[in-house]
């Protein structure tokens, strides 16, 4: 069977082909489409068809999600370009640099968490044996809510 092409001459994929080639379940593809992250057209039989470039968009979404970037942020970054478009090197550079500061901050926080896992992080629970030494009478509560020691450590890194 010959590959279907859209009016622009770009190869079109069924939702099943996209799921198989991207490794993403069909339900997730429906979700991405409902959120405006990817777009499909309908053929004469009212079946979804995706341009083959959607595979690149899905790969970007998957990688960004794996690094912890929220879908709303991914949508905002990808929304600067037409759906299913082939990003140029410059466009990809713009998108990735917009995420860089956020990722660097997450890395600092994760490193601080990793280095503090065996110690008090200043959460105010007073339940660990060394909390009375690191946070006697919950004095860190005066600095504000949350893991004060961990937040200080992530800011230093």
TrEMBL record:
Pfam families xrefs: MerR, MerR-DNA-bind
GO annotation, biological process: response to oxidative stress
Keyword Iron tagged: yes
Domain HTH merR-type: start-end pairs: 12-80
UniProt xrefs under CDD domains: HTH_SoxR
Coiled coil region boundaries: none
Chain intervals for the UniProt region annotation (Disordered): 137-157
GO MF, one annotated term: DNA-binding transcription factor activity
Alphabetic keyword roster: 2Fe-2S, DNA-binding, Iron, Iron-sulfur, Metal-binding, Transcription, Transcription regulation
InterPro entries tied to this protein: DNA-bd_dom_put_sf, MerR-type_HTH_dom, MerR_fam, Redox-sen_tscrpt-act_SoxR, Tscrpt_reg_MerR_DNA-bd
Protein name, UniProt field: Redox-sensitive transcriptional activator SoxR
Source organism of the structure: Pseudomonas proteolytica
